[in-house]
Amino acid sequence: MKTICPHTYARPEATIQHLELDLKVDFLSKTIRGTATYSLNPTVAEKIYFDIHSLDIHSIWINGTYATTDFEIGPHDSLLGQALSIRLPQNTLSLTIHYSTREEAPALQWLNPEQTTEGTHPFLYTQGQPIMTRSWIPIQDTPSIRITYGAKVTLPSDSGMMCLMSARNPKEKSQDGVYQFSMNKPIPSYLISLAIGNLSYQALNDNMGVYAEPVLLEASAWELEEVDQMMHAAQEICGNFLWEQQDFLILPKSFPYGGMENPRLIFITPTLLAGDKSLVSLVAHELAHSWSGNLVTNASWNDFWLNEGFTVYLERRILEMVYGEETAELHAFLGYQDLMVELDKSSEKPKSTHLKLNLQDQNPEEAITFIPYEKGYFFIKEIEKLAGRDTFDIFLKKYFEDFRFKSITTEQFLEYLFENLLDPHKISFAAEDWVYAPGLPQPFFLPLCHKFKIVDEAIPKIVRADAKTILDTRQWETQQWIYFIRKLSDNIQNQDLLTMDQSFGFSTSGNSEILFHWFLNALQSEYYKTLMQELEQFLTTVGRRKFILPLYEGLIRKGEYAKAKEIYTQASKNYHSIARNSIEALF
Ligand code: BES
Ligand code: ZN
Q1: Is the pTM of this model over 0.90?
Q2: 420 Cβ partners below 8 Å, 6+ apart?
Q3: Of the ligands numbered here, which is closest to the C-alpha atom of 193?
Q4: Most buried of 95, 312, 551, 583 (most Cβ within 10 A)?
């Protein structure tokens, strides 16, 4: 049997082309109920296969009439959920599935009012990537199948909430609670998304804007002011923006990621709001996905680096254009450090350090390491360096043009790379060594960062009581502080850490990255004991997995199992199940 990708029950003989949702959202029972109607690509197959997970399937109609057809639901697999196989009578053009979701659907996070910033309305949002869309829509849940979609979503009429999707969106609340959506570009299932809450909208320019809870709207719009320049930069590098409108949604604290590139409606962590625009590289990253990821998509999660490595490369190109070469290099160097740590951690499973992965029988969540992001980045950067910027840029634009609205494998990329760049320019490059072998081929590009040299020179002076009076660190960027904190060795005295903390205010920083790195460093020594209250506060108010998981890990490594458990017991009700699952694996 020909399979499409390791994480779907769908088969290539019968596939969907367009989806039309008609859903009612009930915040009391925490369920969504309704119909999903699919137009099919022409097929002679007798059956079509969908993925479902924790869904109740009520009935299935053919060609929009009451004529039902037989269906079967396969055994439950803890990773993939269940196969829904539907008999296709001859001349079946469309199918309508009547279904409802369950409260425990992993793609859905239902928040009570007290879990939002304003505390007045409940909130619901979805997270589809990598294989969770199947828990709120019966779907062929593989990034290799692309569909257009439309939706009608009905909220309780007096809910006072706004409903948004990764589609054409409203700017105001509807009076009757009914919302209509359309996404007329073919997208993979993991990009279908929904968010409902007490939201308001502010335009940033003609085709960009931000949604947030009203109290956060002004601060959010301010923090995002530079997206206008980022969009110009991105289009100069990648070609025209093809999604018409680009809005951002600031999520409640529990959002487990930094950002999620849902088309037309990028989801963003509220930890972005540092008050000084210092964390906006995250926004450049998600924006870059409008090309790498959303326009040209990895065909399976084995090819995840095609989404993320390319995106990190584009993120740094955007940073370079908007903030200068040096800023981009600071990011690249910190990425290099992350990559080294990851390679070190993975020495026992070298295959997990290949760019091309084999995730058969594995959770695609396993792919979320620094390998696809940073090894992927250095791979693309190496190609750029060999070809030269100008030649590479022509290739890059053509790549997005030739593969737009397509899903491709690593192999297709390599073939294209050789045919369109390496061979015609007689560049000899062992690309396969990057893709199908562990670790890092040497040598490769590594930036020299003047601003990190400044930090290197400052460290011996700073680790002294009168640090602040002798050094002017007012111009230091977030990346310099991260570099600085990472460089503090573990034999440093607690007293020095305390003094430093008092002069620079790390543990009271409004910058979530600095705060996180400071806590992580404190967990290398006994200094964390002094910071227990601040750490606890951080862990109970932040839901971003990248921050909280390593901190729980650090506590446990320190033998603070009971304390970690105590904090977790209190905090976990506010975490997303994605974060909860990862943390519970530690306990
Ligand atoms: N698409 C990813 C997030 C993701 C990956 C969710 C895999 C589920 C499965 C997103 O673009 C991303 O990479 N987010 C990063 C931020 C970025 C600046 C590196 C994150 O959330 O930390
Ligand atoms: Zn990404």
Answers
A1: yes
A2: 395, 398, 399
A3: 1
A4: 312
